[in-house]
Amino acid sequence: MIIFDLMGMLLSAYIVGFIYYGLYRNITARFQRRIGPTVLQSFYDSIKFFSKKESISHGWMFYLGPVIMMTGAIMTLFFIPFFYNSESFSGLSAYGNLFVVLYLMMLGPLGNAMGVGVSGSPFAVMGVTRGLTRMFAMELPFYIAVIALMSLNHSADIATIAANQTTINAFAYPLLFIGVLFSFVAMMGQSPFDVVGAPVEVYSGPAAEFSGKFLALLMSQSAIFSFAKLVLMVNLFLGGAEGFFELLGKTFVLFLFVIAFGSMYGRFKTPQSVDFLVKVPTAIAVVGLILATTGGQ
Amino acid sequence: MKIIPALIFPLLTVLAVFMIVTSQGVWQMDLVVFGLDNITVGLKATALANFFAVLIAFSLFAVSLVSGKQTPSKGFYFLLYLLTWSLLLIVYSADYLLFFVGWEVMSITTYLLLSYTLSPKALVKYIVFAIASAMSLLAAIMILYSTSHSFLYADAHQAYLALSDTLSVLFVVLMLFAFFVKIGVIGFHYWLVDAYAESDDFFTPYLSAVVSKMAVYALIILLVTVVDISLLPKSWIAYTLALLGLLSSLIAAFKAVNEDSMKRLLAYSSIAQLGYIVTVLSFADGVSGALYHSLMHTLVKLLLFINVAGIIYVTSKSKFSELGGLIYRMPQSFVMLLIGIIVLAGMPPLGGFASKYLIYNTLLENGNLLILSAMMFASAAAFLYIYKLIYGIYLGHPTSQKLESVKEVPVGYLIPQYIIATILVVMGTLPGLVTPYLNTILIELKLKTLPLASSAVLNTETGGYNGLIVMAAFVLIFIVILFVLLSLSSKVREAKDRFDIAYCGEVPNEGTHLHYGFSMGKELGRVGFIGVILQNSSRYFYDFISKQLFAFAGIFRKIYSGNLSMNFNIMALFVLALLWWSLK
Amino acid sequence: MEEGFLKEGFLKEQQVMESDLNSDTSHKSSVDFLMDWFRKRSIFVLAYGTGCGAIEMPPTFTSRYDAERLGIRGAATPRQADVIIVSGYCSYKTLRRIIRTYEQMANPKYVLALGSCTVNGGMYWDSYNTIKKLEDYMPVDMYVNGCMPRPESILEGFIELQKEIAEGKASSWQKYEENYEFYRKNQEAVLGKTVAPAYDADWYLYDGGL
């Protein structure tokens, strides 16, 4: 039954996403020569926010903002198959394809931007503008690589692209993968491209006015969305997965790389990150595209 | 004019179009009776023509509903109906002669309609470009006539093949110039932004929605019927179209973010959206994507411009720096604009995604990968001006006292918006609904048709997506999450007033500048390539050309200088030359 | 700890203060018990240094003394924060902002007062510009003694606060809501009719108000 399938995907994304965020805080702490919280810390944070006795709201649009963001994250998750060779945990991916997923990824943040705008905090809107600016820059290398893959596989279906990888795409088309990695660090919101939610610079950006259960929704959707993005990358570049442990292993390796990258670098300013992203990773990805489609590699 | 009389002619137009569409009429006439032999003109109700005629009739109806509250000057409605008649003539004509007549009447009536409100400078810009477009069109038609001795579309392809190489290139260049001016491709768009921004608030939707589509129709006729671009896959024509369309989308998107006036932003947005159509028309397969996108863009621009007209009517302000915070005073307009911008951004589950999906698939199938990535990049960059549009008007804080006491727009503005929003939601849920009709058009143009699955699925060669499932998933998940949120025990405390925001412990008041309205996106100029785009303008190019023309004319000034004795000398020379030539 | 240490002195004072605070236990269904356990494991502290005690906060929350082991991390805005640390003296100017910020936080919220200035005025006991007893203006959940308390003391304060949260005794937010007139009267006595700061870019030109 498809409803159990979807529930399974959602539950695993929720749990694994939160554990990954707990691990993120732990591993970052070890990089900084301290211990850090427990692995389950994100669950505690989320439940604490859900159990706040009151949440502050600025009207019905503010109420709906996090709901739309969560809906966008869950929909993105449902259209990405977990395992390319089985019917279970494939969600609604048979009814959509990679183009749908790419655009659904933008649905949540745009819906949240409505709620953020209506709250009236200028700092929050500054964060949204930075987010939109960073978004179009970081999507460029990603689009180039994804389009190269779609053209090489003659299909826009994620499961097909995952299944066609006799050698993993990361090794078969290394330049494309390197270009995408820069983009992926930005998509996960890590340094040096984490200018959007800067806690002190822009008063935490889009999360400025959210409290209580709204903030808990934002944190939950962040976990689910991150997991969806990780699974998408695994399917496109790391050969897909045939079992749950393989999926967990591959997503964790990718996540570890992203955390390590983020711990090393400081933060770029917004024009700097746009400048960088449209020059270096884009050039790498374009060279990779040309080499891949003209039969080299 | 009140709303009921304003609706009579539009309803008649709708009726007439309906009759033509269902009758499949063909009419042909020899012009021998006028003393011109060898010229045949005709009207034909092709499927493509019917498609655009329906758009024209619907736009006129929508705009007339809005105009009931405005009081335009004398003669406005007559000119508007004359314009509609000329647009119908353009689409239904089966030969280039009647097409040209319609094109000229369209240019002239648009000029007269714009002259009510445009400043002289903007008006001159418009008419110069319109005349240039019309003259180059005429020249191209004459080139074609030189080999075919007929104006009919049916004879055009053979005539084109019979042209010599240089003449065929010249023909295509002239035609493309004429149509690019009307579409507003970047570089030829110099007249467009001022014309849209300064025209009457309820005429701008009509301009943006329909008048630009006439050039799209003409471009399709040129590329498919006359030139038959499916035989020239990598020709210079394809590259020109693809490159110019791409530049339009990119440059216009960044210029749109920089604007303070609502209508100028929407004008640049029109240029960007039409860039998609121009790019995809570089392939013969792209006609389906172009038609779908034309449909979507017509509906969306009607919605957006009517919404903006309502805002201007209620608040008398048209700049973002003077607006803000209208969401809870005009909630219906907000929801309509929200639907409009979701479609403009091309996001599922609404209808804008379907047309973008077709366009992307066409580019992917034809292997144009770099252009496709750049197009998706332009689409992502469009999010900035899309958010600016809705934030600057409805979100944020009101920037003046007057805005705190406005009411909802009159119902005449809301009705067309509701109708269009319903159509957009339905088309998003059932994107395959239009496919059978598109296939009729494609069969008539002798192109490859789209595979049909069901009305809920939009299918292309590389796969499809199910719009119904996407919409159903969105609605169901939204309801479930909302229910979960509502059932949590945490109470919701409303903020005390609009100043109860986390502001580092300080309390802003009315004098504090809190609305991030017009300056949103100004910081983009600090990025390298965007700064280059924003600092340059086609004005510099046209200034350069006009300076050269003035310099060239200065040479003649040396001879014909206004000095009386010189005039006498010239006259004497001229008479002597005549005498010599007649005596030869 | 052996009894010998607790007969007198600094540590005895701290213990006395810890046991004397708002001990109104107003809950206790099992859901509340569970929720309080979660609330104690995850504490978001507003990044707001109100006085000179704030110098000891950065070491506490970063690598040297690592408060994140206890689940404590910083929050950027008052909307996201659970705990506000009043770290030291409060001048009248700062008191306005503290009260405004405290009222913008979402319930349940806790106040941790550092230093002796919040207890009895501390080393500014005779200043014309500071308040002498924070308890008159805002209810406090936990005091941490010292001038200024070292990070180890602040961590002990947090651990005691966690114990109080788990037992449901940290209910200063309820005390604020129930006795709002009392607190408001005290606030207006020192700050004037408008307790909240007036946002005026020229406030420092001192036209007569703070």
Structure report:
The complex is a heterotrimer of chains A (297), B (584) and C (210). With 297 residues, chain A is mainly α. Chain A has one domain. Helix content of chain A is 69%, strand content 1%. Chain A has helices spanning 2-31, 41-50, 60-78, 98-104, 107-119, 122-153, 158-163, 169-172, 174-187, 212-237, 244-264, 270-293, and one strand at residues 54-57. The model of chain A has no long low-confidence stretch (mean pLDDT 90). Chain B is globular and about 105 Å long. Chain B starts with a helix and ends with a helix. Chain B has 584 residues and is mainly alpha-helical. A two-stranded antiparallel ribbon of chain B has the order 1-2. Chain B has a two-stranded antiparallel ribbon with strand order 3-4. In chain B, helix 2 (47-67) packs antiparallel against helix 9 (204-226) and helix 13 (331-345) runs antiparallel to helix 15 (369-393). The model of chain B has no long low-confidence stretch (mean pLDDT 87). Chain B folds into three domains: 1-227, no CATH class; 280-526, no CATH class; 538-583. Chain C has one domain (37-193): Rossmann fold. Helices cover 38% and strands 10% of the residues of chain C. Chain C contains eight helices and five strands; from the N terminus they run H-H-E-H-E-E-H-E-H-E-H-H-H. Chain C has helices spanning 10-19, 30-41, 57-61, 92-104, 117-120, 151-166, 172-178, 180-191, and strands at 43-46, 72-75, 83-87, 110-114, 142-144. A three-stranded parallel sheet of chain C has the order 3-4-5. A two-stranded parallel ribbon of chain C has the order 1-2. In chain C, helix 4 links the parallel strand 3 (83-87) and strand 4 (110-114). In chain C, 44% of the residues are buried. The model of chain C has no long low-confidence stretch (mean pLDDT 83). The chains are: A mainly alpha (297), B mainly alpha (584), C alpha/beta (210). Chain A binds chain C through residues 25, 29, 32-38, 41, 44-45, 47-48, 51-56, 199-200, 203-204, 207-212, 215, and chain C through 35, 38-39, 41-42, 44, 47, 62-63, 66, 68-71, 73-77, 79-80, 82, 104-108.
Distance between the termini of chain B: 67 Å
Total discrete domains of chain C: 1
Question: Helix proportion of residues of chain B, in percent?
Answer: 55-70%
Please describe the biggest sheet of chain B, giving its number of strands, its sense, and whether it closes into a barrel. Answer: 2 strands, antiparallel
Radius of gyration of chain C: 17 Å
By DSSP, the count of extended strands of chain C is 5
Which secondary-structure class do the elements of chain B indicate? Answer: mainly alpha
Helix content of chain C: 25-40%
| Count of distinct strands of chain B | 5
Q: Just give the CATH class of chain C.
A: Alpha Beta
N-to-C CA distance of chain C? 47 Å
Strand content of chain B: under 5%
CATH topology of chain C: Rossmann fold
- Which secondary-structure class do the elements of chain C indicate? alpha/beta
The residue-averaged pLDDT of chain C reads: 83
User: Mean pLDDT across all residues of chain B, rounded?
Assistant: 87
Count of the domains of chain B = 3
Strand neighbour order, sheet with most strands of chain B: 1-2
